[in-house]
Every structure is written in C-alpha cells, then in structure tokens.
C-alpha cells in the first residue's frame, strides 16, 4: 500500500477508528482497493503493525530538517498558518543559536542576499528589457515569447561569433600585423591549387559593387568573411598554434554549445507541457481560473485576450466533440477518412517533390550561368545570382497556403490541424535548404571527365567551401530583405488602407494579425542557415546577430503600429517549448551537411586551412599521432570499439533508469491528483455532515433562531458529532 494510503490503515495498538472518519469517501475508496488487490492487503497488513500516529493526514506533523530550513519562508509549499508557525520556530531557533551556528546562519543570509543583488543587476542589464516589458504589457505573454526567443537567438549568434573570432580570426589578424614565424598551407603547384577568385579588374561600375555586396563575390571574396581567406596552417611564437585544428574545434564547439543551450532551455517547458497536456479537465480549470494574463494594461489587448480565451475554450469543446465523433465512427467511415487522408498526403508529397525539383533546377541553372562569366544586365545578373533564394522563398510562401487548404479536408482536431500544418511548413522550409545543398554537392563532386584528379570539380569550384559560404551568405541577406520588404511595403500600407478606406474589401481584409508560429519559422529558418554557413563563412554569426537586432526593431514597430494579437492563438505560444523543438530540428538538419563536408568531401587544394589534408577531419588523427605515447594511447582507447560499446551500454542503462524514474514520478503525480480529488470529496462530505448536525441541533431546540450559515451552531454541531461517535 502506498504511503498516502497509510492514513486509514488501522493500528492495533491505537484506539479504534472513528465512525465518522470511516465514512469518508477516501477511506471507502481505500477499502475497495484493499478488497480488490491481494498484494495491497499483504502490504497493508505489514504496515498495519506500524503506529499510525507517525503518518497520515491527521497525524502530528513534525518539522522537517532538510533543505527547507535554508529556504525563505515565503518559498515553502505550505499554507499561511504553517508559514507563520515555521517563522516563529525559526525566530526561536535563531535566538537560541550561538557561536558556530549563528555565524553559519549569518553567512548563509549574506550570501543569499548577495546572490539576489547580483541577479537583480544582471536582470537590469538584460538586452531589450524595457522593450519586452512594454510588449508584454500591451499584448500579453503570448507575443512576448516570440521576442524573448528572438533575444535568445541574438545572444546565441553573438557567442558563436566570439568563438570564431577568438580562435580563428584573431590569430590571423594578429599575424598579419606582426613578425611571427608563419607556416602557410602548402600546395603542390598543380592545377588543383589554382584559385584566381572573382575579383573584378579594371574600371568597376558602381552597380557591380552592389552585386558583390549582395552576393559575396568580387572584393568580398578574399576577405575574412569566407573560408578561403584562412590559408595559414601554423603560427609559431612562444608556442605553435594549429589553425586548422582550431577551426575544426571551434565549429564542433558552437554546434555542441547550441545543442546544450537549447536542451537546457527546453527542459522546463517540456516538464510543464507534460503536466498541462495530460488532463483535459485540468486544462479547462487552468483556462477558467488561471488563464487571464494580468500583465495586460491595454484595453484593446484585454478584449483580444478575452476573445482568445473564449476561442480556446471553444476549441477544447470542439476537440471533445471530435473525439466522441471519432469514437463513434463506423468501419466504413474510418476506411473513407483514412483513404482520403492517404490521397491528400500523396498530393502533399507531390507538392513537396515539385518544390524540391524546382529548387534543384534553379540551383543548377544559376551555377551554370555564373560559370559562363558573361556580362549581362545588372538586374538579370542579380536575379541569376539569387535565383535559388528566390525559388526557395516562393516555395515557402505558396506551400503554407496549400497546406492550410488541404488540412481542412482531413478531419483532424483543431489543435492537431495547427500542429500538423506547422510541422509540414517546418519540413518544407528546412528541407529546401537541404535540397539546395544537395544540388551544390552534385555540382561540386561531379566532373566533366570520367575522373576527378582533385577529388572535386576544381574547374568550376577551385575553392568550393567559399562558394558554399557565398550561397549561405546570399540566403541570409535575401531572407532579411524579404522580412524588411514585407514589413515596410505590405504591413504598413495594409494598416493605412484598413484605417482610412471604408470599402468592403478593406473591411474584409481587416487589421494585420501577428502570427506567432509563422514569425518563429522565419527566424528558425535563418538560424539553420547560420549554423550551416558558419563553417564556410566565419563572419556569418555576426551578420546574423545584426540581422536579428534589426528584425527585432522592425517587428516591434510593426507590432505596436500595425498588428494585433491573433484571435486564434497557437497553444504553445505562451512558452518557448514549441519554438525550441523546431529550433532543435533545425540544428539536427544543420549538422548533417556540416558533418558530411568535414568527413567525406575532399577539401579544396587551392584555399583554406585544410589544403594539406584530404578531408577536414584528417587534421585530428594527424595531431593525435604527434602527441606523447601515453596520451595517444588514451585517446585511441576512447575511440576504440570496446569503449564505444561500453559507453553505449552505460548510456542505455542510464536512459532506462531515467525512464523508470520518470514513470515513478508520473505515478506519484497521479496519486497526488487522486489525493487532491479525495480531499475535495472529504471536505464536501464533512460539510454535508456538519449541515445535517446543525439541522438536528436546530430540530432539538427550535426556540433558538439560526444565524446565517452554520457558524452560530458550529460548537453545538460538533458536540452532536462527538455524541454520534460515542454512541457508535
């Protein structure tokens, strides 16, 4: 029997249970469980020998001398009366302390006060603190979560930039202005090492500088911006600095740091989601009694929040109706709806394949046109440069409209419709980047001749890493231009038309709503590009940081001026959990091309720090081979199959333990929920008995006039209850 059930276990050495307590619903439920479970009877009989005075609801509560004695009284999970009692006990104990105990208590208080002051200082230095509080006050915590997520990405990109700057760029900058002994990456003088770049010669027209600035070619190609500029191998000063190893380790570090940071931030949201999404009745209670956002100070925002809560309640009721409808479906109806969903999903797959094929064709066409190196019109040249980015943007704009139309015929619940549509959009946005990279890999690794003497197509791509970096650079620039153009040339004119035009079309169009999931997908798409492109374009995190700062102010001005919160809110908009899950998917996708290019594709022999290596990863075994024998043997042991198998087994055991612990915690949560329900039933039962006792007392002495409620007869009713128990 569980510990909470020990409340009602009879004790042979204690007095017999009271008749009134035995009538409680919780006690009756316990008796039913004991009758239906033989194992529970055995455990109950074993615990029945223990004195019941030390456990249970009516037992005397003893002070707990665990970590709670170091917590502030206001943070203890106790009632107000218990907190007052705890405070009095602490004051008495503090007055009795002397010497070491008093010094320890004072030190703990001082350290805690210092920690709180430090946290206050850090919170006051938080980026965009006042702006985010303003947004929270006007639009609530739903839209606040988007801007907090954007601030997190700004900090993440800034940390990534610091890693690449300190370990890759700074050594190169220092050596270019010093007299250190430098070893450059060696090349054998073959045709594979020829790299002229795309620098323009002679008189350069102004629009060509604009093209170079937007595409990363020309004067930007041989700068710190791209991979090909870092051709150093060793820097000899007081010690030897291995630039290729630092470049590779910095790349691995920013990917691992991003993973750990995202997982850490998503853990708390995942726990809350598990608890909140488990019980539909609890969801109704949370919305009715705790759904209001008291940070709202704007009347319009309050009205929208009220309509949002109303919509969420309607959506919950609609989900319950659909669940009942699904449970009552006949076999023929199930076959029909499954066949329809299969056909629509095939159509979705066809749309995705068509989009991916268009991206592939656009990429191949753009690469071939750029290889021809023919002078053409400025706008035509710019369109050819940005053709893959344009096709990807059009696909990302058209496919959500198709998905929203298709999902209405699939007969899903409203919440699942939103999630499923968003996951399709996420797949489309992130997979389009993968298709672009696949198209580039095909062009890079395929040669016109039967074999590739350099291991890649050196004629078209003498420095293919720089070329990939230029494509990622163009995607980031074009993504920002699209966001800025939509904000300036669509959202602001729409606001003006809706406010100053009384035509029916303007009323039908309505005011712009701030779609949280769609805006999140935009910045996750940009962050995925940044993760992929940082290896090829080390300054891309800095560009992305500036981009997200500008996006923050653009979105803030557009939100305050043009937009209103969505009247059909997304359920996960009040927390970062959904955002971080999508970001984690983007990180997983970004790791694939980076790992493939590091471990599989031949490094360029004409540029970059890995000229002397067949692949970028080859620098690791070469450095390990130069280490002392003991350390080298230790690293080889870590990389051996025996260690890998042992680590895998230990990881599986740890995972099984965590799963079992999570299951135990879940059972405890369920027991506590049941106990809360029983507490409510017990209170209702006792109130009913007290009312009955009051009526009996009033019937015995009708000359006494009853007061409002039963407070005036509480003592008489209590005496009557005692009399009933004595008679029993």
Protein architecture, described:
Residues 32-46 have a biased composition (Basic residues). It is found in: Membrane. Pfam families: TMC (PF07810). This is Transmembrane channel-like protein. Residues 1-20, 31-70 are annotated as: Disordered. The protein is an all-alpha fold. The chain has 4 domains: 1-49, no CATH class; 87-125, no CATH class; 131-628, no CATH class; 661-727. It is built from 24 helices and 5 strands. It has helices at residues 19-22, 25-36, 38-47, 80-96, 100-124, 129-139, 141-176, 206-215, 243-276, 280-290, 299-327, 331-372, 378-385, 387-407, 414-445, 464-500, 504-509, 516-533, 540-561, 577-599, 619-625, 629-638, 641-700, 714-727; strands spanning 181-184, 232-236, 240-242, 512-514, 563-565. The strands form 2 sheets. The protein has a 3-stranded antiparallel beta sheet. A two-stranded parallel sheet has the order 4-5. Helix 2 crosses helix 3. The longest helix is centred in the last third of the chain and has 60 residues, at 641-700. It is globular. The model is unreliable at 1-17, 38-67 and 707-714 (pLDDT under 50).
């Amino acid at each position: 029997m569980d510990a909470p059930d020990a409340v009602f276990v009879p004790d042979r050495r204690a007095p017999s249970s009271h008749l009134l307590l035995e009538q409680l619903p919780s006690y009756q439920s316990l008796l039913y469980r004991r009758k239906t479970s033989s194992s529970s009877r055995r455990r109950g009989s074993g615990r029945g020998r223990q004195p019941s005075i030390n456990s249970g609801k009516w037992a005397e509560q003893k002070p707990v001398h665990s970590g709670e004695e170091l917590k502030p009284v206001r943070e203890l999970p106790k009632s107000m009366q218990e907190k007052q009692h705890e405070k009095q006990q602490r004051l008495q104990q503090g007055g009795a302390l002397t010497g070491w105990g008093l010094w320890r208590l004072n030190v703990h208080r001082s350290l805690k006060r210092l920690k709180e002051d430090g946290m206050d200082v850090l919170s006051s230095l938080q980026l965009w603190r006042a702006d985010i509080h303003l947004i929270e006050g006007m639009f609530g915590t739903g839209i606040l979560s988007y801007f907090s997520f954007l601030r997190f990405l700004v900090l993440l990109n800034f940390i990534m930039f610091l890693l690449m700057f300190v370990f890759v760029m700074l050594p190169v900058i220092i050596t270019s202005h010093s007299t250190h002994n430098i070893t450059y990456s060696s090349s054998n003088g073959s045709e594979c090492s020829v790299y002229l770049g795309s620098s323009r010669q002679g008189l350069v027209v102004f629009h060509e500088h604009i093209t170079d600035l937007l595409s990363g070619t020309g004067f930007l190609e041989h700068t710190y911006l791209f991979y090909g500029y870092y051709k150093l191998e060793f820097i000899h000063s007081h010690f030897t600095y291995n630039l290729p190893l630092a470049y590779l380790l910095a790349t691995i570090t920013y990917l691992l740091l991003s993973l750990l940071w995202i997982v850490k931030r998503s853990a708390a949201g995942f726990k809350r989601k598990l608890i909140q999404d488990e019980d539909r009745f609890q969801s109704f209670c949370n919305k009715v009694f705790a759904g209001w956002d008291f940070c709202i100070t704007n009347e319009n925002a309050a009205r929208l929040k009220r309509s949002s809560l109303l919509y969420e309640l309607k959506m919950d009721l609609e989900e319950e109706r659909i669940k009942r409808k699904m449970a009552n479906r006949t076999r023929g109806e199930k076959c029909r709806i499954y066949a329809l969903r299969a056909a629509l999903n095939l159509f979705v797959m066809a749309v995705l394949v068509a989009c991916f094929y268009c991206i592939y064709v656009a990429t191949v066409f753009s690469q071939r046109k750029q290889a021809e190196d023919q002078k053409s019109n400025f706008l035509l040249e710019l369109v050819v440069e940005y053709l893959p980015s344009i096709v990807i943007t059009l696909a990302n704009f058209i496919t959500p409209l198709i998905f929203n139309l298709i999902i209405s015929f699939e007969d899903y619940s409203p919440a699942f419709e939103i999630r499923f549509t968003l996951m399709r959009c996420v797949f489309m946005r992130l997979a389009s980047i993968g298709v672009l990279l696949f198209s580039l890999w095909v062009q890079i690794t395929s040669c016109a001749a039967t074999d590739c003497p350099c291991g890649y197509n050196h004629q078209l791509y003498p420095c293919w890493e720089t070329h990939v970096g230029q494509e990622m650079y163009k995607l980031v620039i074009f993504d920002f231009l699209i966001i800025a153009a939509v904000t300036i040339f669509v959202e602001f004119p729409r606001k003006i038309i809706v406010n100053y035009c009384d035509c029916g079309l303007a009323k039908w169009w309505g005011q712009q709503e701030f779609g949280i999931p769609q805006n999140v997908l935009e910045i996750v798409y940009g962050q995925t590009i940044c993760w992929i492109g940082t290896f090829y374009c080390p300054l891309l995190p800095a560009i992305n940081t500036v981009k997200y700062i500008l996006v923050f102010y653009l979105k803030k001005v557009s939100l305050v001026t043009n937009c209103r919160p969505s009247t059909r809110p997304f359920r996960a908009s009040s927390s970062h959990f959904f955002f971080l899950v999508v970001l984690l998917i983007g990180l997983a996708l970004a790791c694939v091309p980076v790992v493939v290019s590091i471990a599989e594709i031949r490094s360029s022999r004409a540029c970059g720090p890995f000229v002397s290596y067949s692949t970028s990863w080859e620098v690791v075994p070469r450095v390990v081979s130069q280490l002392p024998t003991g350390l080298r043997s230790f690293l080889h042991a870590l990389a051996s199959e025996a260690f890998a198998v042992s680590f895998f087994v230990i990881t599986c055991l740890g995972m099984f333990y965590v799963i079992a612990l999570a299951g135990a915690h879940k059972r405890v949560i369920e027991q506590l929920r049941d106990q809360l329900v029983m507490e409510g039933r017990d209170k209702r039962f006792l109130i009913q008995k007290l009312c009955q006792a009051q009526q009996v007392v009033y019937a015995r002495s009708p000359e006494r006039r009853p007061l409002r409620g039963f407070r005036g007869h509480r003592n008489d009713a209590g005496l009557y209850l005692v009399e009933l128990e004595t008679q029993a």
